[in-house]
Amino acid sequence: MDSQKAENTEALSELERALNDTRLNILMANKAFSKLMGHKVKQQAEKAIKESEDKYQTIFENSPLGLIHFSNGGIVTACNENFAKIIGAPREKIIGFDMKKSLVDENMKAAVDAALTVGRGHYEGSYLSVLGGKLTPIKAEFSSIKSDDGNFLGGIGIFEDVTARMQAEEALRESEKKFRDLFESATDSICILDLKGNFREVNRATELLTGYSKEELLKLNVKEIIHSEDLEKAKSYFEILLKEGKYNDYEGRIVSKNGEVRYVHVNSNAVVEDGEVVGSRDIVRDITERKLAQEKLRESQEFLNSIVEYSGDAIITTDKNGDITLWSKSAENLFGYKSKDVLGKNISILYADENRDEVKKWKRTNLTGKTSRNLRSKIINSKGEPRDISLTLSPMLDQNGGQIGTVGVSKDFTDVTKAEKDLHEKIRELEEFHRITVGRELRMIELEKEIEGLKKRLAG
Asked: Total structural domains in the chain?
C-alpha cells in the first residue's frame, strides 16, 4: 500500500512538472514570437508552439488522473474527461465554473486560494460536487503558473479518485481490528519475538500465563522466563526455526513472575521480511494441569504395578474379547506360564474343558457391569496338572463408563479343596461310627431290660 502511494505521488509530480514545462514553453514561445524577425523564423516558432500545444493536449486528455486548468481568478478554463467523471458533471458545465465564488467545501476553496497566493495547495477528503452532486473521496494537488516576472497567470489542479484506496485502507483497518480482537481474545498465549528473543508484541493470555504486564514483558528477553534447565533445549528448537522456518511441539517450562513453574507447549513460525527471518511468532499453550495429571497417573500406575507385582494373588486382565493384556508374577507362579507366552492369547486356554461353559456364563455376567466374587473353577497349569482356584471377576471401564475389559484375581484353592474333601470324609466316617455306636448302646439297654425281666421271673 505504501509503495503504491509513493508511485502515485511520483507520477503526480512528473505530470505536474510536464504540464508546467509545457505551459511555460507556450508562454516563452509566444513572447519569442513577437521578437522574431523574418518569415522562416516565424514559421519555426509557430511549429514549436503547435508541437508544444499538441504535447500538452495529449498529456492533458490522456492522463489517468483528473486535470483542470484555471485562471488567476479561479475560473476553470479546461478539464479532461477523467475530471468530469470524478465529480459527476459534463465538461461543458465545468468550463467557466468560478471556484472562488461557487465552491461550498471550505477546505477545497482554501486549497485553490493557496495555489493562487503561495503557489501550492492540497486537499484530501470526501468532496461533494457542486455541479454533479456526487460525493467522492478525492486527493487534489493545486499548483500555480507564473509569468517570468512572478505574476500569477493561473494554475492547474490534479485530482485522484481515492475511493478504491480508501476502501482498501478500510478493509485493512477492519482486518487489523479483527486480527487484534482474535489476538487479544485468544486463550493461548501469542507472542512475537525478534531474533535476539526480545518480546515485541504479546496478548492478554501471555500476561495471564507469565504474571507480567505487557509493559514489563516488552522490556524482557524470553530467556529471562525460560526455566534454566530448558535453555539449551529451547535454543535447539530456535535453530530449527532459523533453518526450516518453523518448529512444532516444543514442551518445556517457564518461570512466572511469582516464581511458579508452568509447563508449556509451543508452536512457532518465522517472521519474514524481505526474504529474511527477523523473528518468530509463537503460540504458547499452558499444559501445567495436563503435566501434573500425567505425573499423578504415572505415580498411580507405578503404585498399581507394585501391587500387581508383589501381590500374593494372581492378577490377570483381558480385553473385551477375552485376550490377555496383563499377567502378574503370581499368575506365573500359579499357572506356570511366563507372561511372554500368554499375552495376547485368549483366557479360555487356561481352563479345564469341563469349566469352559461356566466361564462363558461368567463372562456374560461380567459384561453387565457386575462383579462376580468367590467363584470356584478348575484350571490346567503348564505341566498339565489340574488346580482348583477361587476367582473374582470385575469389569474394567473407560472414562465414559463403557466396558473395555475384565480384571481377574485368582487364588490357588487346591490345598483348601483337598482339605475340605478330607474334612467331609472324616465327618462321614464319624457319622457312620456314631450310627454304629448308638445302635450298640440301644442293644445293650434292651439286653439289660431282658435280664432284669428274667431275674424277676426267677425270683417269683
From this structure: 4
- 134 and 281 together in one domain: no
Which residue range is the domain that position 442 belongs to?
426-460
As separate numbers, helices (DSSP H) first and strands (DSSP E) second, the chain gives 15, 15
The verdict on 318 and 382 lying in the same domain is: yes
What is residue 375's predicted lDDT score, i.e. its pLDDT? 77
CA torsion angle for 111, 112, 115, 116 (degrees, to 10)? -140
The answer to whether the beta carbons of residues 211 and 256 sit under 8 Å apart is yes
DSSP state of 245: S
Give the DSSP letter of residue 159: E
352 and 378 Cβ atoms separated by less than 8 Å? yes
Considering the domain boundaries, does residue 173 fall inside one?
no
Mean pLDDT of 425-450: 71
Three-state SS annotation for 260-322: CEEEEEEEEEEEEECCEEEEEEEEEEECHHHHHHHHHHHHHHHHHHHHHHHCCCEEEEEECCC
Q: Residues for the chain: how many in total?
A: 460
d(CA 158, CA 20): 12
Q: What pLDDT is attached to residue 284?
A: 95
58: Cα separation from own chain's centroid: 57
Q: CA 326 to CA 270: how far, in whole Å? A: 47
Q: What is the model's pTM?
A: 0.50
| pLDDT at residue 408, rounded to an integer | 83
pLDDT beyond 60 at 99 = yes
pLDDT value at 24 more than 60: no
Nearest CA-CA partner of 188 in 122, 267, 129: 267
What sign results for the dihedral spanned by CA atoms 233, 234, 237, 239? negative
